[in-house]
Write a structure and sequence with these properties.
By secondary structure, the chain is mainly α. It has six helices and no strands. It is rod-shaped and about 120 Å long.
């Protein structure tokens, strides 16, 4: 019989019914009952007299409340969410490191209250000594301006 089928050029491999049934079984045994039900219903449409399909459809319907969720069903949504989150992080990094130093340098050159953020003693960090030096500098400037006002 196999020789006759081979000589006729027919393919004796798995058909779409077998493929759908195996995919349904894999999903069913994995706990993905809702997804398995879709495969089993497709098998029933293609081959209504399948020996086991009614039982698997009934079991899948009964267990669909306990079904796991396939990652592939929500993969696109996760990629979109991750992309938006990545863009927000990049935006925050650009804002933090790209724009903030310009604002500090303007404030420091103006001699305003935020000039404390400058490293006046050149020790590589902004600390209490820098705050004290800034306050002394401001007091000197205030004293000089008051002297000029009295003269």
């Amino acid at each position: 019989m196999k020789e006759f089928v081979k000589q006729a050029g027919a393919d004796h491999g798995q058909g779409s019914v077998d493929t759908l049934f195996r995919e349904g079984l894999t999903l069913y045994w994995g706990g993905y009952y809702k997804d398995a039900l879709t495969k089993f219903e497709a098998v029933e449409r293609l081959y209504p007299s399948h020996s086991e399909i009614k039982r698997f459809i009934t079991d899948s319907q009964q267990k669909s409340g306990q079904s796991k969720i396939l990652w592939s069903n929500y993969k696109t949504a996760f990629f979109i969410f991750d992309g938006v989150a990545l863009l927000l992080i990049i935006g925050l990094l650009v804002f933090t490191f790209g724009l903030k130093p310009k604002q500090q340098s303007k404030a420091a050159s103006a001699g305003g209250p935020s000039a404390i953020s400058a490293d006046l003693n050149h020790d590589g960090k902004i600390d209490l000594q820098d705050v004290l030096l800034t306050l002394q500098k401001q007091q000197q400037q205030t004293g000089d301006s008051e002297k000029k006002a009295h003269q």
